[in-house]
Every structure is written in C-alpha cells, then in structure tokens.
Amino acid sequence: MEAIRNPVILISLIIYMLLCIGIGIWALRRTKSTSDFFIAGRNLGVMVTAFAVFSCTMSGFGFVGGPGLVYKMGMSSVWMVIASLIGFNISFFLLGKRLRLFSELGGSISLPDAVALRYGNKTTGLFIAIAIIMGVMGYLATQILAMSIVLRDILLQTGIVESISLGTTMILAGSILVFYSVTGGIIASVYTDIIQGSIMIIGAILIFFTVITMYDGGLASISQTIFENDREAIGPWGTLGMVGCLSWLFVFGLGASGQPHVITKMMMNKKVSDARHILPVSIFGYFFSALLWISIGLVMRALVLKGMHPELTSADTAASQFLQYYVHPVLAGVVFSGLFAAIMSTSDSFLNIGTAAIMHDIPKAMGIKIKNELYWARVTTFLLTLLAGAFALYSGDLIAILGAFGWGTFAAAIVPVVAIGFNWKRATPVAANTAIIVSLGINFLAKLFKITIPFGIDIGAISLIASLTLFISISLLSAPPKLDKNVEAIMDI
Amino acid sequence: MRKPFIVFLFILISLIVILAGLIILPSKSIQVQAQHDLFPTMLKSVKASQSTLTLWLAFFFGIFSICLFTLFLYIGLSGKNFNRKKLVVIVIGLIFYAGIFSFGFASYLRYIQNDSLRIFLGFPAPTAWMLYGIWFFPLFFTFLYVIKFNDWVLKPNDYQRLKEIMKSRERRETRNP
C-alpha cells in the first residue's frame, strides 16, 4: 500500500488541476461582461454561493496553519474556528439581504461600488478600494507562496524530481490559477469552489474519523496525554491564555462581516431570498472542514508528547506529517488536493476583488472611464498574479507584515463602514473615511514596528474597537446625512 | 434607531476600559506562554499569568463581546419599525449565550484548582463547554434566520417595494441619462 502512496497523491492533484482547467474553459463561454467577470451576473444558485462563501473563508491557513497552531499552542487557535459560527450569522444578518439589494439598485459589481452608492461619496469607495488592495497584496502573495511550497514538497516527496526551485513550482501552480481566473473570472472561481469545498469537507470528515480511531482511546486519551504534560494546553484557552483567545473571538467573530472576498459573494446570488438557505449551508460546510484543523493538531501534539512520533521540524508541518505517516494513501491524496484547493479558492477570490479594485473602482472614483473593461480585467488579473508572485519571492519581511495585515485590517476598515453603515442611515461619509484611515494606520504601524500588546491581545481587536468607536461617535455627533431617495428606500427594506 | 447605537457605544467604551485595565493594572506576569522545555516547536503555558483579576477582566471582556455580537444581530434584524418580538427573542438568545459562557468560565475556575480531569465527550469539562456550548449555540440564531426569514428579514411586500424602487430608478435614469 505504501508503494502507491506518492503516485496516488500526485494523480489526485493532477485530476484536481485538470478539473480547474476544464471549468476555466467552460466558464470562458459564460463570461461576456464585467458583471459576469466580477459578480457572475448576479446569477448564482444557493449551493454555488454557499460553497463559495465557506471555501474562500477556510483558506490554506485553515488546512496548514490551523493544525500547526493547535499542535503548537493547544486549544488557543480553536477560538478562531469557534468565532466563525457567530461570524457567519452576523455577516448574513447584517449583509445577506442588504448587499444584494444595493448591488441590484446601483448595478454595483464590487464592494467599493456599493459603498460609494450607499454614502453618495466616491472618496469612501476609493478608501475601501485602497484598503482592499493593501490587504489583497499581502494575502494573495502569502497564498501563492503557500501553494508553491506545498507543490514543491509534493513533487519532492513523490520523487518525480530530485530538486525543484520555489520559482518553478510558483510558475506551475500560478499558471493553473491564472488560467481559470483569467478565462472565467468569478464564474470559474465559484464553480471551482464547489469542487474545492467538496474535497475539503470529505477530506476533513475522513481525517477526523481517522484521528479518533488511530489513537488508542480516541479523543479522551489524546486529551489525557496533553493534560498530563500541560493542563492549560487542552484547557479552553490553550497556552495563549484567556485574554488572547477572547481577543481572537472578538476579531474573528465581528471581523467575518468585513472580509471583502467573502461578503462580495453575497452580491452574486440570483434571488435576494437565497440568503435564507446560503447561511446554513455555509455554516455546515465550514464546520465540517474545520474538523481537520482541530483533530490533526491535537493528535500530532499527543503523538509527539508520547514519543510515538519524532518532534516536528516546524509546527506548520503537522498536517503534512500526519498525512504522510498515518493516513490511507487515497485519503492522503484527497486531503493534499483539498489543501491545494483551500489555497486556490482563497487566492482566486482575492484576485477577483483585487482586480476589481485596480481596474474598476479606483479609476471610477477618479472619474476615469475605461473602454473594454472585460479585456482589461483579464489583463489586470494576469498582471496582479505576476506581481503577487514576485512580491512573495522577493519582498522578504514585507510579505509577512502584509500577510498578517489581512484579517484584522479588513475587519477594522470594513466592518464599521459596510456591516454597520449599510444598516444605519445616520452613518456619515466623514465617519466612514475616518474609521478606514485610523484602522489602516493602527494596523500598519503596529505590524511595521512589531508592537505587541500584553496577554497576547490581537492588534486587530484594538483597531476594530477604535474604528467602531470613532465611526459611531462621529456619526452620532454629526448632522444626519441627506441620503439619495432610492438608497433610503432600499435601507428601509 | 438611535437607541441601539447608544448601547453600542456603551459596550465599546466598556471594552476599552477593560482592555486598558488589563494593560495598566499590575499583574503577576503578562507573559502567557513560553517555549516547551523538551519540544522547541511547541509552546507551554506560563502559570504566573493566571491572576484572579486578569481572569475576571477577561470574563467581562467575553461577556461584553457576546453583548456586541447579539447587538449586531439585532441591528441586522431590526427593520424600519420597532418590533418587540424580535428584541425579546434576541435578548433570550443573549441570555443563553452569555449563560453558557459564564458556566464555561465557572468550570474553568474549578479546572485550574483541581488536579483531577473530568472528561466530557472527549474533552476536559471547560473545553467541552467551549466546544459544544459556545461554538454551537449560534446555531440558534441561524435557525431563527431560516424560520423567520419571511416575517423578519424579507417580507412578501418587500419584493413589491423593491420592484417599485427599481422602476423609480429606471425612470430617473431615463430622465437624466
């Protein structure tokens, strides 16, 4: 059985990549306008939208970084997963209906478009576009880097090559990503998300059952082993402690409604009422794929503590080591594809919103009209991937700064302006612009100067509280804004 | 619609005060974790960081965070007119949600004082509260969203209203192309 392990992993990956290429070719025929390219012509069904929402939320971080964090810190990072359930609810309660309505009203094809319409202010749309580009560059570059590392490791492990550079695997993996993102835009992206999401769910459920059956005594025994070494590690807060974990609950719970690559999907469904069914499907999809995050991390910590597995060279290898040594080859093949899928589904979403910001939102805010938008959207997607790839290879520490910049920055900049502002007529453009600028400033300076807060408090929580407080206070202290008649009517629904 | 935002501001200020308290007030140690003695790729907890004051401040941070979560849900659900039923259901959700968090916290206080390990469905009791309670409770709100969608989120006459708004927009665009 072991002899077929590596060929099976490689074949699974090749099948997955061929499927992505096939979907790209199919989607090319369906992409006839920028509306198709960026928001799938607002024509997606419930299942497609729901899978797109959860699979782009569960990025490569969930499949690689997540198990690594549980191995390293015990239960601490599970709070990011716990926050997701309330986060999905908050996102849909606040934006499930609202964003779709605004998108229809203004024919908006991107989040900054809808923001500019809501506030009647192009500058607010421009600031949101800038925040998106800053977050996207870091996020996209880290995802592309992770994708290249995973592919390089698989090719080396399977023995298909003796040595291969990171640049080469980046070109290989990036070509597939660029192909379907350029040809089919968001249509290819969301339909590949169905495959990607299905692989993630099936792989995670099977891995969970493998974990509880392979370790003698199951979960209880794993808990006992970790408890005997460090009781806090298997306690509710892990090694990070209560304060740090609750700051994650805060920033991941509220921050979900500020992730542009996720909430933009809420503008794409066919009917406004689809939100009713998209929410539960997204939640269950995310829940099942999160089982992998928790189970692999815990079992690897217990195995190493018991001396049943050598210590890992790095915490991030927890998932790949588990798949390599303890999982049936076919399942390992599925999960390695799932890992690749998780990274790709997040990357293509970021490519899409990044392209929209560069090619559509910023020129629009500056009064520049672009002819043949669809052509330039494709060119921009290609160039953005090249730029992010180069950034991943050559930017050194800057990629880590911008990568970490991601979730908390989006949360602090977008939650007040979009999640609250789209539900509160009193919110003013001045409050929105101030909240965006202050949140970007706090996050960027904290990362640049490596500022840490006592008790492991996440800087994202601080910047989110600051931007929310400013946004509400300034709006309450200002005169109520005069809204467009149609915008006001949409906000009354 | 002004009142919820006054409450919102109150919760945010409370969170700022708690965070300031955590950072400013004297504590045995602010270092919460350190490298594991035997396995450098793992971290271990630092017991000195477990002061009672820190834990209680963290507890209130959690309670106010939960209040903010449910307030967000209420803002999303509340329409143009005040609806007492919506408020009551969300408040009931808040009470249960905060209650589960409080029980989990009480279980954790017992956990750090006792040497014995009580396992519930594979995890120590306070961890089980966190996983099976705090993680899963928001399904109550999901259930609410699904079953009350046509009454509370998008009423049948809202579709008609949307059509009228779109027509009015089209008329305006035809007049001012």
Describe the structure.
The complex is a heterodimer of chains A (493) and B (177). Helices cover 78% and strands 0% of the residues of chain A. By secondary structure, chain A is mostly helical. Chain A has one domain (2-394): Sodium/glucose cotransporter. In chain A, helix 3 crosses helix 9 (166-214), helix 5 (78-96) packs parallel to helix 12 (242-255) and helix 8 crosses helix 17 (373-394). The model of chain A has no long low-confidence stretch (mean pLDDT 89). Chain B has a domain at 3-25 and 50-137. Chain B has 7 helices and 4 strands; from the N terminus they run H-E-E-H-H-E-E-H-H-H-H. Chain B has helices at residues 3-24, 52-77, 84-113, 125-135, 139-147, 149-153, 156-175; strands spanning 33-35, 43-45, 119-120, 123-124. In chain B, strand 3 (119-120) and strand 4 (123-124) form a beta hairpin. The longest helix of chain B is centred in the middle third of the chain and has 30 residues, at 84-113. The mean pLDDT of chain B is 89. Chains A and B meet through helix 4, helix 5, helix 6, helix 10 and helix 11 of A and helix 1, strand 2, helix 2, helix 3 and strand 4 of B.
Short characterization:
Chain A has 493 residues and is mainly α. Helices cover 78% and strands 0% of the residues of chain A. Chain A is globular, with a radius of gyration of 22 Å.
Please tally the helical runs of chain A, counting DSSP H or I stretches of 4 or more residues. Answer: 21
Amount of helix of chain B: 55-70%
Oligomer: heterodimer
Uncertain segments of chain B are: none
Number of domains of chain A: 1
Rg over CA atoms of chain B: 23 Å
| Class of secondary structure makeup of chain A | mainly alpha
Distance between the termini of chain A: 60 Å
Main CATH class of chain A: Mainly Alpha
Give the largest interface.
Answer: A-B, 94 and 81 residues
Q: What is the H/E string of chain B?
A: HEEHHEEHHHH
Class per helix and strand makeup of chain B: mainly alpha
